[in-house]
Design a protein that fits this description.
Elements: E1 2-7, E2 13-19, E3 27-32, H1 40-51, E4 54-59, H2 76-84, H3 88-103, E5 108-113, H4 115-126, E6 131-135, E7 152-157, H5 165-174, E8 179-183, H6 199-216
Parallel strand pairs: 3-4, 3-5, 5-6, 6-7, 7-8
Antiparallel strand pairs: 1-2, 2-4
Helix pairs in contact: 3-4
Length: 225
């Protein structure tokens, strides 16, 4: 596990955190960052999924604007500013580079948190992922012109002021076969470093994510993301 560098197809160089499983991977997994960068929490999630058998990479999506940015959780305005400077075509390039790193002879999926939950939707619409998981992606409604091409699972907190119920219904209408889970929690409930962290909901969501990924990953293939 540790820092690596990726090269996107447009020759953009970006950092990434990589975590490897013990033994042969069950598949490749791209972990998509919150709006705060490749934080300790994002690295921890990569390590946890690696412990479950997946080859994981967390691409530093902010590197398109400025390298090495990791924000405090109180600095959400700066995170939103950086997020707004990155075009979705660039996000697709960077997720594809991460997917290529973890593919090998295995299929690739994505798991995204916060901003990454929205990026998971974007990536699932453009890349040959076999599955994608979105945790509290608040801006999916801005990308409803895209339609994911793989099975998706969603996790939402019912006390999340950033995602009103009608936004979730938009997702449900667009993807009627998607797996959507609700929790008695707020935004960011999976992150131990955030105010809305909810241990029970985080454990349940992780368990559901692993079951979902286990249904779709694990076969060998010549395809990559």
């Amino acid at each position: 596990m540790g820092l690596i560098q990726l090269t996107a197809s447009d020759d953009h160089l970006l950092d990434a955190y990589e975590s490897l499983p013990v033994g042969t991977p069950k598949g490749g997994l791209v972990i998509l960052q919150e709006v705060f960068g490749v934080t300790a929490h994002m690295r921890d999630m990569a390590d946890r999924y690696a412990a479950a058998g997946y080859h994981c990479v967390v691409p530093a999506l902010f590197d398109r604007v400025e390298r090495g940015i990791v924000l405090d959780y109180a600095d959400i305005d700066r995170g939103r500013e950086l997020m707004g400077l990155i075009h979705r075509e660039e996000l697709i390039e960077d997720v594809a580079a991460a997917g290529a790193q973890v593919s090998g002879s295995h299929e690739v999926a994505a798991v995204g948190y916060c901003w990454g939950g929205t990026v998971a939707w974007i990536a699932a619409s453009a890349l040959p992922l076999v599955a994608a998981v979105s945790y509290y992606g608040a801006r999916i409604h801005q990308h409803m012109d895209l339609l994911p091409k793989c099975p998706m699972q969603f996790h939402y907190g019912d006390e999340d002021a950033a995602i009103p119920p009608e936004r979730i219904e938009e997702v449900r209408s667009a993807l009627p076969d998607a797996e959507i889970h609700h929790y008695p929690a707020g935004h960011g409930f999976n992150c131990t470093d955030r105010r809305d962290y909810h241990a029970g909901c985080a454990r349940l969501a992780m368990a559901r994510s692993l079951v979902f990924l286990g249904r779709h990953l694990g076969r060998t293939t010549g395809a990559s993301a």
